[in-house]
Amino acid sequence: MHHRAPLAAAGLTAASILLAGCFAQSAGESGTSGGARIKLAMMQPPRSGLSPFSDDAFKLSRWSTAETLVTLDDGGDARPGLATGWRQTSDTAWEFTLRQGVSFHDGSALTPAVAVNTLTRATKAVPKPRILDGVALTAAVQGDKLVVTTGAPDPLLPQRLSSPQLSILAESAYAADGKVTPVGTGSGPFRLVRVDGTTSATLDRHEGYWGEKAKAAGIDVSFVPDGTARAAAIRAGEAHIAEAVPVSQAALLDARTINEVPMPRTNTLYLNTKSGPFADPAVRAAVREAIDRDQIVGTVYEKRADVAKGLLGPALPWTVQGRKEITGRVAAGRANGATITLATFTDRAELPEVASLVQQQLQDAGFRVNQVVREYAHIEQDMLAGRFDAFILSRATVLDSGDPVAYLKSDFTCGGSFNIARLCDETVDRAVREAEAAEAGDRRRAAILAAEAAVLRTDAAIPMLHERVIQGDATSVTGSVKDPRERALITSATHVK
User: Among 241, 283, 337, 494, which residue's CB has the most CB atoms within a 10 Å radius?
Assistant: First the structure.
């Protein structure tokens, strides 16, 4: 939408003032051990003092300072990290072999006992890392192995251990009062040496890293919540990498500095299946036919999003490759002037615009549409209580394990904790249970797509688009990671030319 550009330009003066304080050093300044330092502008400052048991763990992962036992490949399959191999020894027990020769930034060595310490503390953390919600997990040393046991069979345990919230830190990271500090206690190619509250963080290259030594001398992180300021940092050469450039700013940047990354996040129209007009499947099908996804993507997102073919999108490439055409859908009925309430929230800037466009599309199809827009904190309770006929939500479709089953279960099953469509369909529940029980790999993926098809067949949710995150990279940067899961960003290979 080109009307945004003047607003963006008007913000440049304020952004420049912000930049002056954020990036004091000259871009590309070299470290004492050789190689330029990378200047990084991040969107969100730490919320929990960089505790690895919180969402701050993803910053530690993106800085390559803390590492996990397991990593995920592009398809979401488990790959070696600090553990080089694993095997399931019973329905509930897994044995892990740890990598030899790993030393933490404080000089201590990785051992099974160190891993047990981290995992045990994670299970006792308050709040508990979300990857462990509903999971009873214990860890123990058995000979030279790490053994992890769950209360119930968990076919995704290796993937679960890939969560940045379960990063393994040196024992010195954990204080007696329960506080955890990642400063100088990780094992990655960059050593966190200083954190200045919610303003900045400094990392230096870890010369004793077990893997490929970092090409950059270090990372200078500035937390810049203002999106215009982050974009201006790239434009002015004050940052080498900037997270989450707003759509409104992308057109103002050199195209060579813009990278669009598909996100596992879907903008979906949820329909109340329990009461009101959308209790009728044929009326829900009328909405399905009325929504013009291309118009929404082209107008609101300036084509910087992907038109949805399903609930799961291109951030999970196997869903695009394996999805089949859905058959057996209910034929669209007529709106017949039905009055509906369409709601969304303001916290994500594009959603009110999406709501206005959807309102017009539904009115064109014969509905009478009232619109409600509030801050999320003030609308969530009514949303979960089913007080709206339709709700537009930007929803993450995978959790920390890289698996979408938890999303399907919470949003679309009879007992789902986030079932705003109020859907209760035995066919859907059975399909989700089968996906949940399936072993990782092709079998599980097929079951997930079958569950997705079962949900779509009900028209309880109309997926509209899959969001992208726009990352700014200076033309001098090589090797930054464009990661849909937002776990990786700067690695050993990232450097300034």
Answer: 241
CATH of the domain at 47: 3.40.190.10
Q: Is residue 181 part of a domain?
A: no
With tokens 């500035």, the residue in question is 222
Q: What does the pLDDT look like over 255-279, one tens digit per residue?
A: 999 999 898 999 999 999 999 999 9
What one-character-per-residue DSSP string does 59-84 give? HHHHTT-SB-SEEE-TTS-EEESSEE
Domain around 198: 4-65+188-254+475-496
Q: Which of 176, 202, 159 is nearest to 50 (CA)?
A: 202
The residue type at 256: R
**Residue 178 placed within a domain:** no
Which 3 state secondary structure label does DSSP give 481? coil
Two structure tokens written together for 365: 């199809």
The domain that holds 390 is classified in CATH as 3.10.105.10
Over the stretch 384-410, which tens digit does the pLDDT of each residue have?
999 999 999 999 898 677 789 989 998
Tell me which of 119, 148, 173 is where a domain ends: 173
C-alpha 100: how far from chain center: 31
41 with 91, same domain? Answer: no
Rounded-to-integer distance, Cα 308 and Cα 462, Å: 9
Contacts of 150 (CB under 8 A, 6+ apart): 92, 93, 135, 136, 137, 157
- List the chain residues with pLDDT less than 70: 1-34, 399
Note the pTM of the prediction, 2 decimals: 0.79
